[in-house]
Amino acid sequence: MKVPSYRASWLLLACVLSIPAVHAEPVQVMNSGGFSAAYKALQPEYERSSGDTLSTAWGPSMGESPQSIPNRLARGEPADVVIMVGYALDRLIAQGVVDPASRTDLADSRIGMVVRAGAYAPDISTVDALKKAMLQAESIAYSDSASGVYIERELLKKLDIEAAVKPKAHMVEKTPVGQLVAQGRYALGFQQVSELKPVAGVQLVGRLPEAVQSVTRFAAGVPFAAKHPEAGRKLIRFLASPQALPAVVASGMDPLPGQ
């Protein structure tokens, strides 16, 4: 067997060392509830393929809680990517917080309803059935984000049950609605389907009828203050890619029209 010369070995080592290494970045992400399940499913694959490490802060897209994404950004918490309700992201763009050129739609999200596992599951397949279920329920909970805002400000009026339901309806901050339903604290719970599906101890009854459904589009963007903006854009391209779509759909979200 021919043994490589010292000079040949040195040249081989020099060539190996001259190959540029993949430059990994620590990417700070702020993510709201609706896209959380899809993001968690996709994170390991993305970190393996990109070499980047994702560090995530969780919070609603809006609201007064300290954990909300707008409040986190206002306090100066770092973020290379924000994933949130599209119209809430548009507000941050209008305020000069997020780069409008980075804005990317990711998926649509619909509202669903759960009951405690093993409890009676009322029919909500039609508008009349939904109205009856809400009138007969002992208590109702919904989130302080997009889905709950819609239910409190619009759905109850559309169904003409605001006066009857408001006294037993509660807007929940921070805690996932499904968790409180699983604990027996509320009879019916409404939130984005993708936020209800991962919760143990509840049964997903179904989605709101399409005639009174509210479709929330989730989107992502890069704040102007991002320390790693290019890494942030790379992550957003991945989340919006066909490669990510199966995990997005499995989470309970819907593809964008045309996908």
3D architecture notes:
Strands 2-1-3-10-4 form a five-stranded mixed β-sheet. It has a five-stranded mixed β-sheet with strand order 7-6-8-5-9. The chain has helices spanning 6-18, 36-50, 69-74, 86-94, 127-136, 146-158, 162-165, 177-182, 193-196, 229-239, 245-250; strands spanning 26-31, 53-58, 81-85, 104-109, 111-116, 140-143, 169-172, 188-192, 202-207, 216-221. Mean pLDDT is 91; it is low at 1-21. It has two domains: 26-108 and 217-250, D-Maltodextrin-Binding Protein, domain 2, CATH 3.40.190.10; 111-212, D-Maltodextrin-Binding Protein, domain 2 (3-Layer(aba) Sandwich). The termini are far apart. 37% of the residues lie in helices and 21% in strands.
Key phrases:
259 residues; elongated; alpha/beta; D-Maltodextrin-Binding Protein, domain 2; 11 helices; five-stranded mixed β-sheet; 2 domains
In short:
The protein is α/β, with parallel strands linked by helices. It has helices spanning about 5-20, 35-50, 70-75, 85-95, 125-135, 145-160, 160-165, 175-180, 195, 230-240, 245-250, and strands spanning about 25-30, 55-60, 80-85, 105-110, 110-115, 140-145, 170, 190, 200-205, 215-220.
